[in-house]
Amino acid sequence: MVALCGGLGLDLLLQGIARQGYRLVGPTVRNGAIGVDVIDGAQDLPQGWTDQQAPGSYRILRRDDQAYFGFSSPPGGWKRYLFPAHSVLWRSTTHGDGIEIKPASDDPGPTAFIGIRSCDLAAIEIQDRIFLSRGNPDPIYEARRENLLLIGVDCREPGPLCFCESMDCGPRADGADLRITELGPDDPATHRFVVRAQTPLGSDVLAGSGIEKIDQSARPVDMDDLAADRFPSPADDCVPGRVVNTDRLAELLVAEAESPVWDDIAERCLACGNCTMVCPTCFCSDVDDLPVIPPGGQERIRQWASCFELDHSYIHGGSIRQSIKSRYRQWLTHKFSSWWDQFGSSGCVGCGRCIASCPVGIDVTESLAAIRDG
After folding, report:
1. What's the predicted TM-score (pTM) here?
2. Phi and psi dihedrals of 20, rounded to 5?
3. What is the DSSP string of 60-86?
């Protein structure tokens, strides 16, 4: 465990990680939002920015301090770096004596997620079960996951749409290889980052960064520090803005399949699929074969899909779920009920992205409460 002084210490740590061959991916300000993108160092992080979220609403604002991680989970999320929105599975070329098929190359190399939150760490655990633990690992996801370093950050403040505690997913970044706690951003003299190695990979990377040699202010955190509780995590006092009663929720959703609440929600829902696109655990996809230019070849591609699309449930003769009501019910019931049967957990991590991204402001926590009350 190491304590770093302010942004300079953090940047030296990130540069030390980059020198070990990792591509840095983290939150940064792009096009009026805090998104996740490739970054060069701490200077690209959204220092001094926060976000303001509400059902169907998102914007960023300046903070009163210089916190690097003083915002909720970024809207776009991290999923696309493990499960890309568009992937080429293989390419074929026609020759005079036949057709040659080659798997597409998809190897971005070692990648470090900088500042990932507890809800998204839980989402990666869920997607690991989906793509790696069912007897036939997905090669694209597997290759990217094997080269991944997770650098988590404890949540500093509750998000107004978050309900991670209800889903047992936070707010401390306990599942990361390295866990960062940001302290005292309102005072440059006390602005610190405490970095904890939580896995053997994290310990190796922290040691390999050479941070204690190149940053004279960096120092190990000893047992006296821990005993005196000199580095408490702000996440210990973090209270999410939403709550979901999960008591027998899976059984409730099955029992209330004909609840009139589904009709009320369907009158508002546009079936746009925004909620599924931003959800860190949704994994629906379509596979298509497309010709390539110049002629004589073909690509098989996989791209994200949504269960809100009418054709997504198409079976010979038509779609199973014709109405928006049936498609919304399928999505919500899968997330909080039948997901348990498939993967042994809920399919929701309480990040609240679906609430902010819904153009008509449908709040999943209100939907669940209404079904329970109804």
Report:
1. 0.91
2. -85, 5
3. EEE-SS--SS-S-S-SS-SGGGTS-SE
